[in-house]
């Protein structure tokens, strides 16, 4: 199947799926956001059907990242600095990286199921619907419990901001929300590229995890902890350093790794925009090359 | 007995079909191994001999735990998801008809799975770690054998825990919540995030007494030669004690569940 057939009147594929009312048949295709919110809303209602399980999953999601932070707390119960950074500074790195990732994960976290959809052929059903495929895949199985991670990141971030000994300027204050949003954009781009990759390597969802969850773990720690080549890799090749390292080091008044210029602290919005455009392109190439398994 | 051997072989073979997924998993374990290894280097630079490990032992700990992650199934899931689904749909009624023991059946399948993951996802990350980092792997084949036995016992304890979790679906129908909570506890208390010996004070003592320490902490310590002689027997005894208690609890829960089984929408 080359291109999704949109809005073809014959045998409306939407009807009877409980997905949209048949009256929509001849209307214009849904927009990205409308599709996304409709499917996400459906999954939220479905999640809430098993109330006890939902609460446990919410707590679970909160805890799974909280334990990540507990590890850092445990480490600092043994040492006073890590890679030359204090506890509040590492907490700031942790808070910014977890919040940005938590937001991206809440928005697009289901996208790594794409490989499974390619394998079992259920992607075909999404292609014939008159709605953007990316929005459908992203909103699929939308889990409200994912907010647990975001909440946890925000709490640590707030705590670190209270504990940090930083000389705040207007630029630094503004840079905090800018960092969080650009970071979310960069992580979203990584999610989309990972999904596009799964059009070819259907079974390789875990490769994506290496860059998403792995990237988030990496950014929780100061760049001084890692080998120079790794820092180079996440600066020049996969620009994760722009998620939080570069702006955060500016805020903390710390020297940059690799002797990078200071103004790069303000580059994240630009980097995020470029990443999102490129990932959109990768997605379209992936979608166009998609061949149904025919099952 | 032969039946369960066949089931175990089936469990092994089933995972051999996921070749790309296995390669992807090896890649991810390796990436995480590198990231964690550097944080440990930073930590052990500040506190040499933390938890009684020197730096190369700590790095060995990182790479062995990445290699064992899937074998002892620290993230939970695996057969448990399937069993929960069978309970939810009512297919479990068919399983209960079979002339095979439910618990032993799933244990055999899980042992097959564990063996596959040990070979498929264990060897390469450990080899990578040994190549690029300074590890303290034993030369003595006896230590490796003792390690393998500890891994086997760890898999059984891990199975027993997940079996208990899956059976909770008889009461809750959707077992995802409990499964998520238990797998998180497992991740933390197995020593996956930080060696339990590096946990401070009482928390460390509690963590080392919980069943999850059988999954990772004990096998790695056996490999690092921290348990030998009577100490080794004590470590095995700890693992087997938890295995017996948890498998027994699984039996009790299973018989209670069978008495109240309601087949949903058969």
TrEMBL record, chain A:
Annotated region (Disordered), positions in chain: 1-22
InterPro entries in the cross-refs: ABC-2_transporter-like (IPR010390)
Keyword Coiled coil assigned: no
Pfam family, one: ABC2_membrane_6
Organism: Streptomyces hundungensis
Protein's name in the database: Transporter
Keyword flag Transmembrane: yes
UniProt entry keywords in alphabetical sequence: Membrane, Transmembrane, Transmembrane helix
Listed transmembrane segments: 55-79, 91-111, 150-168, 174-197, 233-251, 263-283
Automatic annotation (TrEMBL), chain B:
Keyword Cell cycle: no
Keyword DNA damage attributed: no
One Pfam family in the UniProt entry: ABC2_membrane_6
Top-rank taxon: Bacteria
Taxonomy of the source species: Bacteria, Bacillati, Actinomycetota, Actinomycetes, Kitasatosporales
PANTHER family referenced in this protein's UniProt entry, alphabetically: INTEGRAL MEMBRANE PROTEIN (PTHR36832:SF2), SLR1174 PROTEIN-RELATED (PTHR36832)
Residues that span the membrane, as ranges: 20-41, 61-80, 118-137, 143-164, 171-194, 230-250
Keywords noted in UniProt: Membrane, Transmembrane, Transmembrane helix
This protein's name: ABC transporter permease
